[in-house]
Write a structure and sequence with these properties.
Layout lengths: L1 E6 L3 H10 L3 E7 L5 H6 L2 E5 L17 E4 L11 H11 L7 E7 L10 E2 L10 H20 L2 E7 L1 E3 L6 H6 L3 E2 L6 E2 L1 E3 H14 L4 E4 L6 E2 H11 L7 E2 L1 H7 L2 H7 L4 E2 L2 H5 L10 H14 L1
Parallel strand pairs: 1-2, 1-4, 2-3, 4-5, 5-7, 6-15, 7-12, 8-11, 9-14
Antiparallel strand pairs: 10-13
Helix pairs in contact: 1-6, 3-4, 7-11
Length: 294
């Protein structure tokens, strides 16, 4: 049975586990012992380790054939030291993993003025958050080229699901941009992303990037309006970009400054991914039904 090592076993990783449990012996690195029982309950073998403390990672050397790297970079700087520590730990093993799937972000493309963006477009990160992701991609690809490890990179946009919706923002009345100033955003449902990750494990091409997005980019404000309508909340007020610069925090503004429409042809043609939620319309309807059932 193949051994799979998960780095960063959060929401999407846990959605992936049932899809591979019958085919893989699954391990997960966690620095929180309080989570170990919950991981064991879903068939995952926890390994104590902390990507910020490289000496704690010795147990993962030579452990698994496949590695899925979900863990985010540190909160500051332009380098992803966590990915550097992970690579160093994996490289110590008598055997290397055959492949690593890295969950990156579409933010590495930067602002594309609403243009269609395929994976061949050069990266141009414009925030430190995106620069850290680009740094992780570069480190993994260079290591893969040196070592022969197959590296597959998924560039992921906004993830949503029944427990990942902007309901608090809508309730707080946080404004969105006017249509003429608004940016195009992209989404993927957490369940679809879990399936794309599994497809990448079995069908990903070496040293290859994939836009892990759904079929329907849309304006950010339109997305908020749709969620508001589905959940019976007021639509957000609209402000101009100049007004937004004065009233919104920088972390929100950084998303509003980047506009792009991801092309997802590769995940369909090469990974043969089938989206259960090809647009946010289907995904939010399902999220509304799930929350109502609770």
């Amino acid at each position: 049975m193949r051994r799979l090592l998960i780095i960063g076993c959060g929401n999407v990783a846990l959605r992936m586990v049932p899809l591979v449990r019958s085919r893989c012996r699954i391990y997960a690195v966690s620095h929180t012992p309080q989570r170990f029982a919950a991981l064991r309950a879903v068939g995952v073998i926890p390994i104590r380790g902390d990507l910020d403390r490289p000496r704690t990672l010795d147990a993962i050397a030579g452990l698994a054939r496949d590695v899925v790297h979900f863990a985010p970079p540190p909160d500051r700087g332009v380098h992803d030291t966590r990915t550097a520590h992970l690579i160093a730990a994996l490289a110590k093993g008598q055997s290397l993993p055959q492949q690593v799937v890295y969950i990156s972000t579409s933010g590495v493309y930067g602002d594309c003025d609403g243009e269609l963006v395929a994976e061949t477009r050069p990266v141009r990160p414009q925030t430190d958050r995106a620069r850290r992701r680009a740094d992780a991609e570069r480190r993994l690809r260079e290591w893969g080229a040196r070592s022969g490890v197959r590296v597959v990179i998924l560039r992921v946009p906004g993830i949503y699901a029944e427990d990942r919706l902007p309901l608090a923002r809508l309730k707080n009345g946080t404004p969105a941009l006017t249509p003429e100033d608004d940016a195009y955003v992209n989404h993927v449902h957490a369940e679809d992303l879990a399936r794309i990750v599994v497809a990448a494990l079995y069908r990903g091409h070496p040293n290859r990037m994939y836009n892990a997005a759904d079929d329907a980019p849309q304006k950010m404000g339109d997305y908020f309006d749709l969620v508001a309508d589905r959940f019976g909340l007021p639509r957000p007020p609209r402000v101009t970009r100049a007004q937004a610069e004065r009233v919104l925090p920088q972390n929100l503004l950084s998303f509003m400054r980047e506009s792009r429409r991801l092309v997802n042809r590769r995940i369909k043609q090469e990974l043969r991914a089938r989206l259960r939620f090809p647009t946010v319309n289907e995904g939010i309807a399902a999220a509304r039904a799930a929350r109502a059932a609770d």
